[in-house]
Amino acid sequence: MIETNRPISILILNGYPKQSRDSFDLSGIGHPHDFFLDFLNRYVPSAKTTLRFAADPGNILAESMNIGDFDGIIWTGSDLTIFHLDDERVTKQIAFAKAVYEHGVPSYGSCWGIQMAAVAAGGEVRKNPKGREWSIGRNIRLTEAGKRSPFLEGKPQRYNGFVMHLDEVTRIPERAKILAFNDHCEVQALEVKHQKGTFWAAQYHPEYNLLEMAKLIGARSVPLVNEGFFADREAVFRYANDMTALHEHTDDGYLRTKLDIGDDIIDARIREQELRNWIDHLVIPYLRRSL
Fold it and tell me: Are residues 176 and 250 in the same domain?
């Protein structure tokens, strides 16, 4: 738990369009902004948080708000495709991320967030030819830069993380460093320094837990079957039910072995380390400069 002389002000940008958020509600899926709010409530209980839906029509910030009002900005995932530059829901978010770099407010992002970090600074994202990476990204390894990075301080040199994505960063911007990778995706964690800002991001989701990933997998049952990961939807639901059961009984050795899940997924002290590091090493120093 972190306390500061004045409340940290965090802007959370949910990148999902309203239709997708409504679908989440109908399917009983949790909203990713709530997962970040839960983390902040536990780690920085005095933080002041502002939630905006970045894909919705109109300006991302209300007229009374400015980027400089915030000490840190969090980008959630999204089901938009960032290289669809004919989609205003995409381009307005890229423009906002560029403005954040110009202001110098530190950013963190998961999944869509790592793609935003790269594209807004001149990098590139494309569809991964290996297809979807889903449920758990396996055997994520630190690069040499990652081993030295405060973003991944305290992480094992090899670990797993929650994932659900089709696209990947294919070209990093200047002054960017790849911090982690695995066999499916060459950029699993990234640091981008651009203009005045620093953006730390992961292709995986430190903010998720087993229960929420199980819900997402259940809701993605049709594409998971169509893409050949399961024989039928019933098999998807059995897998999701096992994940839910392990969430409820984390010491169940049978389920841990069956699902091949260890403490790096179950233990929030390991899984959420990136988020704590972002607060400690980027947000708080930025806040202190502004005092």
Answer: no
